[in-house]
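Reviewers asked in the last cycle whether our approach scales beyond single polypeptides. To address this, we selected a multi-component target totalling 704 residues and predicted its structure end to end. The input consisted of the following lines:
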Amino acid sequence: MPELPNPELAAAPTAGMNGARAAGEGATVLEAARLVLQRDLTLAFRRRGQLVQPLAFFAIVTTLFPLAISPELARLREVAAGVLWVAALLASLLALEFLFRDDAHDGTLEQYALSGQPLTGLMFAKTAAHWLLTGLPLALMAPLAALSLGAPSASIPGIVASVAIGTIALSLIGSIGAALTLGIRRSGVLLALLTLPLSLPVLIFGARASELAIHGAPYVAPLELLAALAVLGVTLAPLAAAAAVRVSLE
Amino acid sequence: MSHEGLEAENLQLWRGERHVLRGVGFAVPRGACLHVAGANGSGKTSLLRTACGLLYPESGRLLWNGRDVREDLPAFHASLIYIGHEPPLKADLSALENLRYWVGMRRRTDRAALESALQRVGAAAWRERPARTLSAGQKRRVALAALSLALVPLWLLDEPTTNLDGEGQRLVGTLIEEQLARGGLVLAATHHELPVAAGRVRRLELQLA
Amino acid sequence: MSWTWFHRLGSPPYIYRLAQRLTPWFAWPAGALIIAALYGGLVLAPPDYLQGDGFRIIYMHAPSAWMSLMVYTTMAVAAAVGLIWRIKVAHAVAASCAPVGASFTLAALVTGSLWGEPMWGTWWEWDPRLTSELILFFLYLGYMGLRGAIEDTQRADRTSAVLAVVGVVNVPIIHYSVSWWNSLHQAPSVMRLGKPALSTTMLAPLLMMLLGFTLFFVAVLLVRLRGEILNRERSASWIREALGT
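The resulting structure, written as structure tokens, was:
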């Protein structure tokens, strides 16, 4: 049977090489990343119950401290920034375990690696989805926790800003740990052991920014350092996560 | 004598302590199908995964259209689709949504194209149901729909006929023959026989280590 | 010509034999230097005018701390080489470095704590250097924990290599942020493990000790490397010949 030349296959553009919007053309990395983001958000909303868990954990941990220390708001205000940040860090850690878990189990991660799209871009999209589902809600909940620990309401903008930017950095750093521990059974503690030391700079700058906000002092300096960490994370973390994912597929 | 197609030279692969691929080589020109056969554990899946570039052989080369795939791995990946033992479907998404996200990573698709692909594989009736409610055979049919939409020259299929009834298996044969007629190539690993005309199929038998 | 040398460096039997031959060249000088440095530091150097004899622990503390950092860097470089060029021996080097580096870190922490106690009455101070050292210890533990949690050697090598590279990039960042943090909360009486002003008789033993520690590290690394290679290549044919059985 003679081989029929196929204009379709011969001309099928590889990903990222075209600009037309027709169906059947190759997808660009931005389109692929958008789909990854969309898919993760859709899936999360189909299991809405699970979304609340990190937030509930955050609330409970925050409650532990007044019970363990003292009900006096004056005393709590001294440690409020630290308590808030440790709780946010731990809540963020809990949500990390599931960043890649399901995708690794059902073969989606493998398809990402074989899609011909830059895996780094797809990792960034996944981490962005994770932040939207965990970090952002934490940032919005943080003022409530701060107020319960004696912080004045004037400190709210500073607290939201610091936790929002800080959780971006935490999601990025955490994605590396999550990718490294793929395929290890019961890796929760190991994930924490790997991620916490790398997250310490975020904790230091973020807690300082919140502390200054609570005491009414200008907090721009640590906030800028926090933003610098987030930017560094954006450039380097998805790369490291992609490398770790490829290793896990070998 | 063109170099179009997939060639492997002397692939040596270890998985832990096991020497799984011992100097495996093959040449699959355009329009040909390679049936990778062998008992369970003989390395069929490992060979397929090495052929897509997921596994890194200790030595040996893989050539796509005459060039080493390591020179431009993303371009090689954009030219292939790999479907493993389990179709990569998300339990909470419907067949239609799964297909849209899966194929959308590499090709723009519209609803019409997705629907007609699902129609072809007999999935029209249950395309909106979440994947967790689908049987293994139904999930495999969704994977077949993805094949027809991907528009890539190289197909790497691991056990493509598993869980399919007679009609489904004939569908696999038809899809493969259409792909070959278009000038594409198929590598299929299975310990069954492929439902494809014998003249189009070359056979590579792997021995148990 | 130079590539043959590079390829031989990647060959496990070659490295095994090379390590065997080189070990005494590092071990004996290391021993001599350390003993000489100990004598110089504990006996010859005069007591510090501020800290008395207590400062002498610097002869153990400072080189340990310096080595803990140097070993981590070596480990990360070896891991990166193994990751990029897929050289198994490089991964074996990284694996051999980790416990040694962790031990140096622990030694630095313990000597740091011992230094603080007679000086300022506390067994621990959140001094920036000690705190950074503690975090470095956690980084080592994480690396070794990750290696231990993955059964397949090749995957363990490559996964921990990514971690080592990420870690080495983070070490300066962590160090900077910890210094920044410490400078914010300056207690009025500065409780720092400050180095006393060092005269030549005090400095010379310190440098000798540092060199001795470095040679000691290389010697220990070579011994561990041989063990590591034996373990990884245990089913290979050259092993029996190398062990003389």
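Chain A touches chain B at residues 1, 3-6, 8-10, 12, 14-15, 21-27, 31-32, 35-36, 38-39, 42-43, 46-47, 102, 106-108, 110-118, 249-250 (CB under 8 Å). We regard this as preliminary and will revisit it once experimental data from Aim 1 are available.
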